[in-house]
Structures are given as C-alpha cells and as structure tokens.
Amino acid sequence: AHLVESGGGLVQPGGSLTLSCVASGFSFGTTAMTWGRQAPGTGLEWVSLIYSDGRETDYADNVKGRFTTSRDNTKNTLYLHMNNLRLEARQTYYCIRGLNVYATRGQGTQGLVSA
Fold first, then answer.
1. Cα angle 71-111-11, degrees, rounded to a multiple of 5
2. Which of 7, 13, 9, 8 is nearest to 114 (CA)?
3. Which of 8, 60, 66, 89 could form a disulfide with 39 if both were Cys (CB 3.0 to 4.6 A apart)?
C-alpha cells in the first residue's frame, strides 16, 4: 500500500485547508480510511474515519462540526476539509489505511495555524 498526502500549509485562525491523499497498491474502493494527526512530542491522535462507500463517517469531538472527510473512489483519493481552524501547534496529518490509527500511513502533510 502507498499513500501520499498533500495540501498542508500555513493558515490564520478561522481559515480553511483541504488535505488530499492519493492511495495505490490496494483496493481503495473497498477499504475504510482514517485521518490521524500528530503534534511534535505528542502521540498520534485520531481525527476521522470514513467507510468504503463514503456514506458513513465519524469525527473526534474536538473537530466535529469543523472537519469533513470525503472520498472519490474513482480517483483513489481521500480528502479532509478543515474549516474554522484553531490556533494550535504544527500538526502533521496522516492518511491511514483502515480503521486502526496505527496501521499503514503516508508520510504526512503539515498544517500550521498561526496568527
């Protein structure tokens, strides 16, 4: 399995970012996917999940209502739309195969919310 995230960057508080993850090497269209994130010196935090058909999603309480995950199975691509971003430390966002946050993941893409 190969996962490549992109879309990170620097935004101001209240801003938005959309992350993408292109998957290859496995049957993306039949695989549930997870987003996780990690700040320096902390553990990997679960952010969201989406089941294979895209109809069912779930979010961590601290992002619920602000983040939306979606997928395009025709493009083997997973998305994380992040709105109303809060002032916080640099986070590296990971696209993860399956529902286990410690499963196969990409190299990550960094997002920083700073005034």
1. 105
2. 13
3. 89
Is 9 within 8 Å of 91 (Cβ atoms)? no
Let me know: does 80 contact 92? Beta carbons within 8 Å.
no
pLDDT tens-place string over residues 6-60 = 999 999 999 999 999 999 999 999 999 999 999 999 999 999 999 999 999 999 9
**Contact status, residue 106 vs residue 21, Cβ threshold 8 Å:** yes
